[in-house]
Amino acid sequence: MFFAKILNYIRLAIAYVRLNWLSHIEYRNAFYIEAAGMFLNNVIWLVFWVYFFKAFPTVPTWTSSDVITLWAISAAGWGIAFVIFGNCRFLANIISTGQLDAWMLYPRHLLSHLILGKMKPSAFGDMVFGFAMYLFFVRPDFPHLALFCILTVSVAILFTGFSIVAGSLSFFLGNAESLALHLEFAMICFCTYPAPIFEGRIRWLLYTVLPALFVSYYPIEALRNLSIEQALYAFAGSLAFASIAVYVFYFGLKRYESGNLTVMRG
Amino acid sequence: MKYSHTIFRKYFALAFISARSNFAYFAEVLSRQLFLAVILYILLRLWQQTYSHCGLQQMAGLSLPQMLWYLTATEAIILSSSPISTIMDEEIRSGSLAMQLIRPTPYPLYRLALYLGERALRLLANFFIGSIICFVLVREIPVSVVGILALAMALPLAIILDFLGNFLVGLAAFWLENTSGILFIYSRLTMVLGGMLIPLDLLPAPYSNLAKSLPFASMVYGPARQFVHPCNFELLQFIVLQISWIFVFSIIVWQVYSLALKRVASNGG
């Protein structure tokens, strides 16, 4: 029964990804420009940070390969998350403008259905960048590549969960669009710096409120040591945060008031 | 004389309205400060580790507190940027540009006035909150009055130059379906080659000199460097460079804008 539900949801997700892809590809130039722009944008960052950590031994235990892995796994995870669940990024706006009404009419679980609604073209650039950089510059053997692919799923779950929590703030604060956006920026910032530079109490913050260590610490350690244990910690953290996100969303939903907004979804 | 006074008043009124309407979104201003605090904390940790592991008291002539104040200035400048190219992209693609073109003000100057008003407000908020955060983090204010005056001299030209860059990106919407890809690259180049995270003096010699002569350095690095390490000669050099780049960009903007206007087709409505 449980597996049948999962299979059913995967089929729905595939259908949405296909539909979103087709709608974007209708304006293919716009899609390619945005995706390529994000890819090049990431390349510029990566070149800069590889230079920085080579020129200044800020974290002596880290090599260029670790910096590339960090950027690759963050970008690939972010990309997977918002290619599939791109509507998470619009959640704050959907809630504050009363657009949830339209989604509530479907005979599906609200949150899991709602987040499939859109795809971010720039996320494609992130996803391709992440896998390309890891393959071309780290040149992993098969076990490392397999673990990398598995861990990108963990990172994607975490980013999706975080985005849901940030967007759900609109239930409590009214229009939290800007706050959600800046929280996501803050999260991605913490995720793309080596974890060893953060010590003391701030690490508790990075396990809880901004759970960046489940991107920048456990997955990197798992790949460095080919450690299944560290990979399991990464997954445990991501799944725990995703569960909290679901709870926060449905808790907030009790405060939602219909906007009586007529929305047509094509 | 009276005519020029009236024109000035018109653009000042536009800038003032823009600043006021942005001030209405106070929550947005506050959330940006939250992000500024996060970034400054990360950079503090990064540079603390860098100074400590390199065993140096100064890098590029800056002590650790000076470096943090430099980064506060660069972040305040970068985070004050306004999404003008995104607005232009929308106006051009939706056709609402036609409404802007019939106003009794040239469209580029109209946009410049709105941009200056919005950016001035954001800069003030960012510098105010950024300075408090930076002081809490380093417990020192290694900035002189001369540095503040040098920043005040270099910033207006930096903002105008950044406006011209953003305006060019926005104009690309006349030829492309979407300009967000170009905007990603433009903003990243402004951050990296503008010295947002690392003073350009710390780049290897040939690249450092090259980066300093590019327009991105005139937008971010120049004002921030003068803020923490003022030097009359360098300030003069930067201002001359800023004026030169503004001149070059103005000509490019004018040429591209003239070409773009030929592609506008209005059908009433």
Description:
The complex is a heterodimer of chains A (266) and B (269). Chain A is mainly alpha-helical and 266 residues long. Chain A has one domain (2-253). Chain A is built from 13 helices and no strands. Chain A is globular. The model of chain A has no long low-confidence stretch (mean pLDDT 91). The model of chain B has no long low-confidence stretch (mean pLDDT 89). Chain B is 77% helix and 0% strand. In chain B, 46% of the residues are buried. Chain B has helices at residues 2-23, 26-54, 64-79, 84-94, 97-101, 107-138, 145-171, 180-193, 205-213, 215-219, 221-228, 232-261. Chain B starts with a helix and ends in an 8-residue tail after the last helix. Chain B is mostly helical and 269 residues long. Chain B has one domain. The longest helix of chain B is centred in the middle third of the chain and has 32 residues, at 107-138. The radius of gyration of chain B is 20 Å and the shape is globular.
Please summarize what this structure is.
With 266 residues, chain A is mainly α.
Attribute tags:
heterodimer; A: 266 residues; mainly alpha; 13 helices; globular; B: 269 residues
Order of helices and strands of chain A: HHHHHHHHHHHHH
Helix content of chain B: over 70%
Q: Average pLDDT value of chain B?
A: 89
Structural class of chain B: mainly alpha
Termini separation of chain A (Å)? 32 Å
Instruction: List low-pLDDT spans of chain A.
Output: none
What integer is the average pLDDT of chain A?
91
Strand content of chain A: under 5%
Please tally the helical runs of chain B, counting DSSP H or I stretches of 4 or more residues.
Answer: 12
N-to-C SSE series of chain B?
HHHHHHHHHHHH
